[in-house]
Write a structure and sequence with these properties.
By secondary structure, this protein is an all-alpha fold. The chain has helices at about 5, 10-45, 50-65, 65-75, 80-95, 105-115, 120-130, 135-155, 155-165, 170-190, 200-210, 225-235, 235-255, 260-265, 270-305, 305-320, 335-350, 355-360, 365-380, 380-395, 400-420.
């Protein structure tokens, strides 16, 4: 019997999970504070609705465009420097929003915020691959990802209180200051498994036995080329998952942007009632994230099949998301909220795509794969609001918009069923 086998495994990976859970929560909070500050901010700076829409969109343009460079940076610099540097930068630009005195400054800070937040999810994907065996990754993914949904639902009252008590500038400065402090903590605390003082050999063996990269050498420098991106997208696992994530993310974007307007204009619900009801689908999405991760890992343990464990919950989630179309055919607002909650619950399950991509990404291109995947997912942040706006503007109704969102969800399910193929790590030269 080896010495390692007699040791009780440490649980350092769960401390790492807590670290990235807080980082992800801060990531989404810093995106959301603009929406909370907007009513006061637009009045003080005399910003028109059209210009405010452009300022909102600025984040998604640079965030999507920076996914591949962010993944490349991760492959070159490693997780610790990339994640901490990204966190510090995006928090700094969040803080600067509070010092803006004109539209140009605000627009520039939004562009910078999107660019600096880009490495977050590729870093999360690498950490899952490094620190967790395959049978634990989906639940780990669910734990950190649920913050993006629950945080938006439950932190909004606190953020509104800050604006009401101290003003919109204080909101940005406080949020940015918290992030700067946590970025320094991330740099001081985080290490990859092979360099961590908190992990013992028994835990490393546990991670390694489950297909983790606990003993992987530091990532080598990878020269960027579009040929490498093309090679990644030529792999059916990566292409299919990227299409599916774009389709699933479109449902998320709808809830982040147009959902309150839909309730107020299409369903005739006043703003107070809309705000109260809007929390329910976010709670459902949080449950979807947690349940999806739990079911995925359970299926892998019971069946030994990553195909069943990873793809089945995602396909079910996308099919549930497609039920958003049914809201076009009911009169009761209570039923509408129920349908929207089911749809957003399904979208929460689709977040499992990040676990799947960490399972299939080539070892030498984990960062770049995460960047390509997140680029495809976040194109929805650009495309969906525009398409929905055009449909509503031309028809005066959300009927076609909900049909568009639901149809995309069905396309995403088809991508996972017919394109993705076997869930296994891609081998590339």
């Amino acid at each position: 019997m080896t010495i390692a086998s007699t040791l009780r495994p440490t649980r350092a990976r769960f401390g790492v999970l807590g670290l990235i859970s807080i980082a992800t929560l801060l990531n989404y909070m810093d995106r959301a504070v603009m929406g909370v500050a907007a009513p006061s901010l637009t009045q003080e700076l005399q910003i028109s609705p059209e210009m405010m829409g452009l300022i909102f969109s600025a984040f998604s343009w640079t965030y999507a465009a920076s996914q591949i460079p962010g993944g490349l940076l991760l492959d070159r610099l490693g997780t610790r420097i990339t994640y901490a540097g990204s966190l510090i930068l995006w928090s700094f630009f969040t803080l600067l929003h509070g010092l803006a005195t004109n539209v140009t400054m605000l627009f520039g800070f939004r562009l910078a915020l999107g660019m600096s937040e880009a490495p977050c999810y590729p870093c999360n994907s690498r950490i899952l691959s490094s620190w967790f065996p395959q049978q634990e990754r989906a639940r780990a993914n669910a734990v950190y990802a649920v913050g993006q949904y629950a945080g938006l639902a439950f932190f909004s009252p606190v953020l509104f209180w800050v604006v009401g008590s101290m003003g919109w500038r204080a909101l940005f400065i406080i949020a940015g200051g918290i992030g700067l402090a946590f970025g320094l903590l991330m740099y001081a605390w985080y290490r990859d498994p092979q360099h961590s003082h908190r992990v013992n050999s028994a835990e490393l063996d546990h991670i390694r036995a489950g297909g983790g990269l606990a003993d992987a050498a530091p990532a080598k420098s990878v020269r960027f080329s579009w040929a490498n991106v093309g090679k990644l997208l030529s792999q059916r696992q990566i292409l299919g998952a990227s299409i599916g994530q774009f389709c699933g993310n479109s449902t998320l974007v709808f809830f982040l942007t147009w959902f309150p307007t839909y309730l107020a204009t299409e369903r005739g619900m006043d703003w107070l009632k809309s705000g109260t009801f809007a929390i329910l689908p976010y709670i459902a999405a949080s449950a979807g994230v947690l349940l999806g991760g739990h079911v995925s890992d359970m299926l892998i343990r019971r069946t030994g099949s990553a195909n069943i464990g990873r793809k089945l919950p995602i396909v079910v989630g996308l099919l549930l998301a497609s039920t958003i179309i049914l809201a076009n055919f009911v009169q009761s607002n209570t039923l509408v909220i129920a349908i929207m909650s089911v749809a957003f619950f399904g979208q929460g399950m689709v977040n499992l795509g990040w676990t799947l991509i960490s399972d299939v990404a080539p070892r030498q291109y984990i960062g770049l794969t995460g960047g390509v995947f997140n680029l495809c997912a976040n194109l929805a942040g650009i495309v969906t609001p525009i398409v929905v706006g055009v449909i509503v503007g031309q028809t005066g109704s959300f009927y076609g918009a909900l049909a568009f969102i639901g149809t995309l969800a069905l396309v995403g399910a088809a991508a996972y069923i017919f394109i993705v193929g076997d869930v296994k790590r891609v081998e590339m030269d």
